[in-house]
Each structure stands twice: as C-alpha cells, then as structure tokens.
Prior knowledge:
This protein is of the alpha/beta class.
Amino acid sequence: MTNRHSTMLKTLGITALALGGLAVANTLAARAAERRYPPEGRFLTVDGVRLHYMEAGEGPPVVLLHGNVSALGDSLASGMFQRLARNHRVIAFDRPGMGHSDRPKNRSHGRDWTPEDQADLLARAFDALNIENAVVVGHSYATLVALALALDHRRAVKGLVLMAGYYFPTRRVDAALVAPVAMPVLGDLLRYTLSPPFAKAMMPAMLKTLFSPRPVPDHLTDSFPAALTIRPSQLRANAQDGVTMVPAAERLQHRYADVTVPVAIFAGHGDRVVEQEEQSGRLHHVLSDSTLHWVPDSGHMVHYADPELVVRRIDELSAEKAAPQVSVHR
C-alpha cells in the first residue's frame, strides 16, 4: 500500500469517526430538547399518524396552523392562543413532522406531505375531534394548508385567516438550499451530522430576519421551543415543506377563485421572507370575499406585531353567518 493510499484511508477513517460522533451528539441533543420542551397537549392518531395538539376554551371553533421551521408553541409565544381561548374553542396543531407530531418517512401512507396531503390528514383530525365550521388560521407555509382545507373540505371551514402567506409560484433560493436535506440517503446523512449544528448557528440570524423590522421578542427564547425545530426528524419535515411550497402554489393558484368562505389576509410591508405586495395583494384581487390588512411596522411575524387586530378579525369571521353548503353531484 502506498503512502498516498494509506493517507486517504486514514482521512476517510477520521471523517467517518467525526461524522459518527456528530450523529451521536445530535441524537442526544434532540432527546435533550424533547425533555426540555415536553408535549403540553394531547395526542390523536389519524391514519397511522400521531398528531400533537392543544385545546382550550369554549365557543365557536378556531384552528391555528403554524408555518415552517416552527411548532404550535408559536401561537403560545405570540399570545394568540391565550387571547382566543377567552371566547373560542381554540385548537392548535403541531403540523405533521413538526413539534411533537409524527411525519412517517415511508410512502406506505401514500403521501408526499404536500399542503393538500396535510389538509387531508387534518380534515380527518377535525372529524375525530368534532371540529366543524371552524375559522382556520394559517401562518406562512400553513396558509397553503388552510387554503387546501377550504377547497377540499368545505364543511370543515367557516372562514380563513391567512398571515404572511405564499400563494403564487416564484423562484425561491431557500427551496434550492434545503433540497439536499429532503433527499433520500444524502438527506439522512446531513440531518444527523452537519445540518443540526448549522441550523443552530443560523437560528439567531433567521429569527432576526423573520421579525425584522421589529426586534426579536425578549421572551421568545423561553417561550418558543426553537431546539425542537433543529432535530433531525423536524429538519426533514422543514426541508420537505421547503421543496413542496412552490409546486403547491403552482397547483393551488388555479383554484383560489373557488374558495367560497370569507378570507382575512394579513401582511407586513417589511416582510423579508415573502414579497407580500406580490403575494397577499394579488390574492386579495383573486378572492372576491376577502379583506386585506396591512400591519404597520411589521415583517413576517404579523401576529406578534398586532395580535389583537388578528383576534378581532377572527371574532368577526366567527360571528358571521355561515353560507349554505352546496353539494355538487358528478
């Protein structure tokens, strides 16, 4: 064996040991995060998928769906959940693969975990929990899930509140960047080795971008389970949502005119994640029964900037008389 070959073998061995060490460290860190932020709600198994949700209050139902790289703790940190529980039956879900909800990896469930797939699963969860005619509130990526619910499961939805959403396809650099993490084999390697420490290092900058032009709230570190979002399991879900977002917007944009429920759209002029003039403004023109609310001095996290405004609009939609359901026979 030549010295060159010997050096290569040693380098490969050291690299393998380093990656193995990272995998062990990241697995232990994920377990520590789950101990630090244990599930505070209940669990429901639907179609073999274990979903975590929190429920409080009484009255007309409101369902809260969080965005990507997030969890239901977002609605707690923003105060939305607590405010709504005063007058509503409010249910916040960890979307599949996020927080403490599962997202099965194999295709035996017949899902690619598109917004439509997630809407189908959540509609079955609604049935199991006796949720009907709910105001569904979606933030960021979850606006696509909320729209899919309104289009494909009309009896479940009375109205929509869409916050800082993405509705029409554009070129997204972030989708290309996360694509390797969603891939088989390579994605597994990345998620258990390099991706968690990289995501942890980038978290402060990401939060600053999300909340800009406002500062990141001081209480967020204690109230939002950020450590859960960088576990290997959720990194896969984050990446899958990242790569399915643009194709989903391409599919759904042709159906928006069929939305029959009233829609309240919230957007911030300073959003550095999604160009809201292009997205929310355009959606408002497509939806005949919609209102558009620009939140001043606000970026992507509009529900932190003015949660009372969002809650008032939810109250109004909830109080409106539901339009009669029309059955279509084909």
